[in-house]
Write a structure and sequence with these properties.
With 390 residues, the protein is an alpha/beta fold. It has twelve helices and 18 strands. Strand 14 and strand 15 form a beta hairpin. Helix 1 runs parallel beside helix 9, helix 2 packs across helix 9 and helix 9 runs antiparallel to helix 10. The structure holds flavin-adenine dinucleotide.
């Protein structure tokens, strides 16, 4: 009989892992705390290392329909809009890495992932409160008093993971000192700006501003990051005020203000990460995605890495007997940790590089970007990787 795998958390990481594990013929259940999954209006960038896996799960056409294929990644200067680097995506990247780069609305991505799951796999309205294990199996308990039993338990329950806390104790993530306003500007309201179909990152003192089209080009998604010394509210995502976002970009290029002016609502996020964890697994229980390697979004890789985790996990568990689960999870962790830790570190590094005040360091950064682009040296290592091949 195939192993029964319980996944806690039906976000991008949990649902993608379920698809990878089902494909390897495991018996899988995903338990998601929210009754009906909704996503704040926001987009996500999906690089070839993630789309390659999603295509393998049969989602290529669905992604093509819902995603926008950007032409290039462009870095611009905050004040005058000068282009610091422009690297092709589109056909170039698809030919180089055998899989496309997409911009997609999060709700669309989640819908593509969850609708590919057979009926009954995703159980919503099930909030996990605890997880235990014996030599013979695992057990998750839920807020409604119910429980589920299986052979392996995977915590894909995000940065505030309950499963992580059960395994390794309470430890709060680190507030990065950065906050992000996110929102969607209807394309017709910004048509006069002639915004290119790129992933555009404006860099300036103490902040950066990223935008790209989603939802078949109907909306321009933006992520506006600025520095703030503290975050007091318990909730880590909140409705934000557009005028506050605008204030963070005083003196920046008029295009940024025109985009903010076109938005009806914005959400404000505190950005947290963690230092790499020493361990992800204990016995038959392991973690994936933001539960074990939350990262600042400055490499646009958090979701991609959670998708990779699921592929590697399925490959490590394939063909494993019930008595060999713990070593298989150790192998998964050993494979994934160096890669995710290096991307976590790179994302932290970008929180400084992206936000340099004008001066000699900024000039050196801009010169380096002009010479070699923002991505080229790390592109091959990140985009060319196939997490399912171990
Ligand atoms: C501003 C911003 C921009 C980003 N841009 C990008 C990008 O362009 N590209 C990219 O790859 N990544 C990006 N990321 C990162 C990406 O969003 C995350 O890394 C990714 O969503 C992590 O997925 P996950 O499934 O691990 O966690 P989550 O998305 O947090 O999902 C966890 C799920 O678990 C559920 N859950 C939690 N606790 C329980 C419980 N006790 N019981 C049951 N269910 C539970 C939650 O409801 C949720 O559905 C960005 C992040 C931010 C903040």
């Amino acid at each position: 009989m195939s192993l029964k795998i319980i996944i806690i958390g039906g976000g991008i990481g949990g649902t993608a892992a379920a698809l990878a594990l089902l494909r390897a013929s495991f018996d899988v259940r995903v338990y998601e705390q929210v009754a009906a999954k909704t996503e704040v209006g926001a987009g996500i960038q999906l690089s070839p290392n993630a789309t390659r896996l999603l295509q393998r799960y049969g989602l290529g056409e669905a992604l093509k329909l819902r995603g926008v294929r950007p032409d290039a990644i462009e870095v611009r200067r905050w004040q005058d809009g000068a282009t610091l680097s422009l690297e092709p995506l589109g056909d170039t990247i698809e030919q180089s890495y055998g899989a496309p780069y997409y911009h997609i609305h999060r709700a669309d991505l989640l819908s593509v992932l969850s609708s590919a799951l057979p009926a009954g796999v995703l159980q919503t309205g099930r909030r996990c409160m605890g997880a235990t294990q014996t030599d013979g199996g695992v057990r998750a308990t839920f807020e409604d008093g119910s429980h589920a039993e299986g052979d392996v338990l995977v915590g894909a329950d995000g940065i505030h993971s309950t499963v992580r806390r059960v395994l390794f104790g309470e430890e709060r993530p680190r507030f990065s000192g950065n906050i992000a306003y996110r929102g969607l500007a209807p394309a017709e309201r910004i048509a006069h700006l002639g915004v290119r179909r790129n992933s555009t990152n404006w860099m300036g003192p103490g902040g950066h501003f990223v935008h790209y089209f989603v939802a078949g080009g109907k909306f321009l998604n933006f992520v506006a990051v600025s520095e703030q010394s503290s975050w007091e509210r318990e909730s880590w995502t909140d409705r934000g005020r557009i005028e506050d976002a605008r204030r963070c970009y005083a003196g920046w290029h008029p295009q940024i203000h025109a985009i903010l002016d076109a938005v009806d609502e914005t959400f404000k996020w505190a950005l947290f990460d963690r230092a790499p964890l020493e361990r992800w697994s204990a016995g038959r229980i392991t973690l994936l995605g933001d539960a074990c390697h939350p990262m600042l979004p400055y490499m646009a890789q958090g979701a991609a890495q959670s998708i990779e985790d699921g592929a590697s996990l399925a490959a490590c568990l394939a063909g494993v007997s019930r008595s060999d689960i713990a070593p298989a999870l150790q192998r998964y962790e050993a494979l994934r940790k160096p890669r995710t830790a290096s991307i976590q570190a790179a994302a932290r590094g970008n929180s400084i590089t992206f936000h340099l005040p004008d001066g000699s360091q900024q000039q050196a950064r801009d010169a380096a970007m002009k010479a070699q682009g923002d991505l080229s040296p790390r592109r091959a290592a990140i985009f060319g990787f196939d997490a399912g091949m171990i």
